[in-house]
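User: I'm new to structure prediction. If I give you an amino acid sequence, what do you actually give back? Let's try with this one:
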Amino acid sequence: MLETILHSQPIDEKYIQVEYTDTVLLEKKKIKVKDIGIKTCELSHFFFEYATGFQIPTAYVKKDDKTILKFVNHKPFSFTVKILNRADKRIAKIFGLKEHSELKLPVFEFHYGEGKDTLISESHLISFDLCNQEDMKVILRISSKVNAVLKSFFDRRNEILSQLSCTFGKFEEKICLSGDFSPFGLKVYPKEENKKWFDPEKMNTPAEIKKYTDFLHNIVSPK
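Assistant: Good question. You get back a string of structure tokens that encode the predicted 3D arrangement of the chain. For your 223 residues, that looks like this:
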């Protein structure tokens, strides 16, 4: 499990603030990665703004500081939607494909809990009251649109969006995109050789995490 540690706190009944730290959880071990809080905050700010421009409903409100984003005080769903545009190691093994080969249609996976074995089915979500069928339809519809919008964004920059992870919440009974756009949820590959790129599947040290984060950050930063 590889993720940025966030600090979330309510401002009032309507809004919360999320602070992005330089601490990363790597297989239950906390490590420091210089400036990843600032850069993950900037990536999330950029892509939430970008998604909003395509009428995608989000919990995002604005950037409050270099490491802090403001959101509406939504109720988060306890699972993640992983969208795959290319075959990962598990899918490649099951279906006899070459790893990273392009899929005809995106695959939507649901993940719950921590660790490696988090994959669950839609029926698990319904059976354990983690989501109802109507909300699931909306979540999948939004996920599909987010994937299409971001896939096109990276394609125009000569990059390939291989995987994307999305989380969702509810605010005033409406589904909204929440969470973040971190280096651990966005798996991007260059179409052509790029010395600044680092394989996101192989991030195990602060230096490797920083290199891939910088690669993503450079894509969205003004030139």
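You can read the tokens as a compact description of the fold. Here is one thing that stands out. The chain has a mean pLDDT of 93.
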